[in-house]
Amino acid sequence: MVSERPTNNNRSKILVVDDRSENLLAIETALKHVDTEIIKARSGNEALALMLCHDLALVLLDVRMPEMNGFEVATLMRDDDNTKHIPIIFVTAISKDEAYVFRGYETGAVDYLFTPLNPDILQAKVRVFLEMYRQKRELKIARREAEAANLAKSEFLANMSHEIRTPMTAILGFSDVLLGNLQEEEDVFAANIIKRNGEYLLRLINDILDLSKIEAGKFEVEHIACSPPTIIADVASLMRVRAKSKNIPLYVEYVGAIPETIQCDPVRLRQILINLLGNAIKFTETGSVRLVIRLVQGPGSATALRFDVIDTGIGLSEEQISTLFQPFSQADASTTRRFGG
After folding, report:
1. For a Cys staple, 248 with which of 243, 257, 269, 320, CB 3.0–4.6 Å?
2. CATH number for the domain whose boundaries are 142-220
3. Per-residue pLDDT for 6 more than 50?
4. pTM (2 decimals)?
5. Is the CB of residue 303 less than 8 Å from the CB of residue 295?
6. 249-277 per-position pLDDT tens digit
7. With contact defined as beta carbons under 8 Å apart, do 273 and 235 qualify?
8. Histidine kinase domain spans which residues (predicted)?
9. Is residue 40 within 8 Å of residue 16, measured between CB atoms?
10. Assigned CATH topology for domain 3-117
């Protein structure tokens, strides 16, 4: 027969297993000031059945019981995926012999209590395991909430991507139509700008989706043959339009010769250059922005391309540099007012 305190779903549960009613009562009395729900069982079989019905924080398990002793119960618990995670404290008056105690730990015990029980020690140990259980439960809840939020974010990004791609595809399509019909060089140049900016917005959508992939650990970088001069020229052409709107010259400088072809991710290279130059132009009011490219020694015998973006903008203090890679950080509030973020 099972005896339980009134159920409160917010309280952690402890299973006390002993074949003697007076021992069950003694433990229950000692724990009356501990905020927990005590479930009692008088045999190993009854205890195993109760473990499948309750989410338990701890099992206080008597070693010497008829039919099935505590060691046997612990062994069966450890062999079952549903119960192997439950911590066990053996309660015994039999022996403090090291070999005997070791057998208990070997079968899965995390601690021992020897009778006659000291109520203060019992309460202290139980509270430790209840706190561990509470923290573990909160971590599970937080993880579920984080996973749900991440799923909702992914669904939002997917929907947003679709909603923006549809009109943007139409804009790019009409840009191609314009380019096929325009004759004047200035008009063709303007139509190309529209097309390039439309393509940039599509890539921006991909950037947002990439962020989701990074957080999910699914982001991949390509290593394919590409032409740095072509990418640099394309990016410079696009960003000069932005610079011109602020009357800021954008210079591209090559320090020595660079290879016509390298192995890299062309999409990411273009993305990085656009972001760096865009930021430099945004925060520069007077002066100029320069993109400097040079060949440098890489790891081992390899060589690498180095890109430096140099501007005459507001710059960053040492303190501000330390927050550079924190999301949505800003140098100060006045920066938002002057430059829009």
Report:
1. 243
2. 1.10.287.130
3. no
4. 0.50
5. yes
6. 999 999 999 999 999 999 889 989 998 99
7. yes
8. 159-341
9. yes
10. Rossmann fold (3.40.50)
